[in-house]
Amino acid sequence: MVYSQLPLRCVYVISCSLFVLAAGKVPTAAHTNSWRDLFFGNKWLTPAPSSSRLRESKFLPIFTLMPYGTSSCAAPSGELGNCMASKDCLLRNGIPAGPCGGGYGVCCVFLQTCGGIIRENSTYFVNPNHPDVYDGTGSCQVTVQKMHPDICQLRLDLDMFSIAPPEPANHLCNQDQLLISGGSPTPTICGSSTGDHMYIDAGLGQSNPIVLSVITSASFPRLWRVRVSQIHCGSISRADQGCLQYFTAISGRVRSFNYNTVAGRQLSNQDYSICIRNERNFCGIQYNACPDLENNRSRAFTISGNSNNPVPTLVGGGGGANGGSPTSGCTSDWLLIGCIRSADRIPPLPGCEDRVCGGTFSAEAGMLAKTVQSSVRPFRLYFHTDGVEAPNDIDNRGFCLDYVQQPCTNGF
Ligand SMILES: *[C@@H]1O[C@H](CO)[C@@H](O)[C@H](O)[C@H]1NC(C)=O
Ligand SMILES: *[C@@H]1O[C@H](CO)[C@@H](O)[C@H](O)[C@H]1NC(C)=O
Ligand SMILES: [Ca+2]
């Protein structure tokens, strides 16, 4: 049982908050599955020495004990909230979800759905009926207002994201779409992208709000829970300019939206950069196609061609050095990684390539998947797809690559 199984509209109704407050003053004997369990977890009912202090801190004005500012906390149902005084949480239309800050505050979770306005950091944009699925049609949108004029970016974490997939012929999102307007251009996505993220440039000042819309048509069991974080212009977590996705670890995994080796379809009309922060003392980067545990022949890199058959690597854009064609290689759908070479050639091949496509991940034309390396900094990938798949490009899944940054001593 999680608190968010309560009807979402409860969040917006004052009487609902009052009910919570009033009922909170008369804790009764422990019984599970009560609304109190949903809101505060069982700890609330445990007759521990701290329980009276806990109770006071929630319902009496002992707020000076709370450290000022908000720290992040986790609700039992998995959402991240902001730790604050209970009174403040209710005043700001948040949902108190268990104690935090050593019992002096509540983990306050903010949810918004269709028609909502996001004013708090770390607010979740959820589907109507959340956490149950939503089968309705229309446009469900939330408006994000900057908490402060000095907010430069939004980070969207697609905590749960499953809307109708693109159609099978050209992989266009013509049934459902996630659209983001008011910020930097973002690709339209659909299908399933749980775990992926996006950064949106929010522009200067308070002027233009960013609107997140999920547009739906026809029947589909949709589910979404997107965390919207606001990032200060001076924050160390700010992504580099022009990066839709930004990764900050020495090793990690990058993949296209709606990637899934079983049934995912590479989305059409994509154009964006994926950036990997260059960590100190690392000068190069290597990429490998992710393991594909579902298929006998890996579909972890299937960008063009008919991926129901074996498709070689195609490379282009680098002057045709390693079997690529300067003009005809990878012109419709491609991944660009600056000056890539195969890592297993010693000495390395003199030439390098920029674009890679086809159905096998390597920096050289052929059927053999290889580790690819690059020393172009900053580390960035650029993904482009056009609006056409059929009849030549069939069942492509997109890409999933594992990356590892390479120390400066390692020949880079
Ligand atoms: C919003 O929350 C994120 C993550 O919890 C944090 O990194 C960021 O600094 C917060 N933004 C503001 C404006 O407080
Ligand atoms: C993998 O190959 C085996 C043996 O050829 C076959 O039985 C199986 O169906 C294949 N699996 C997939 C997912 O194609
Ligand atoms: Ca295409």
Structure description:
This protein is mostly beta strands and 412 residues long. The protein has 4 helices and 23 strands. The chain has helices spanning 14-24, 35-40, 51-59, 86-91, and strands at 71-74, 80-84, 95-100, 105-112, 117-118, 123-126, 138-144, 151-162, 177-181, 197-201, 210-216, 223-232, 245-247, 251-255, 271-276, 282-289, 301-302, 313-316, 334-342, 353-358, 372-374, 379-384, 398-407. Strands 13, 14, 15, 16, 17, 18, 19, 20, 21, 22 and 23 form an 11-stranded mixed beta sheet that branches. The N and C termini lie far apart (52 Å). The structure holds 2-acetamido-2-deoxy-beta-D-glucopyranose (2 copies) and calcium ion. The site of one 2-acetamido-2-deoxy-beta-D-glucopyranose (NAG) has 2 residues, from loops.
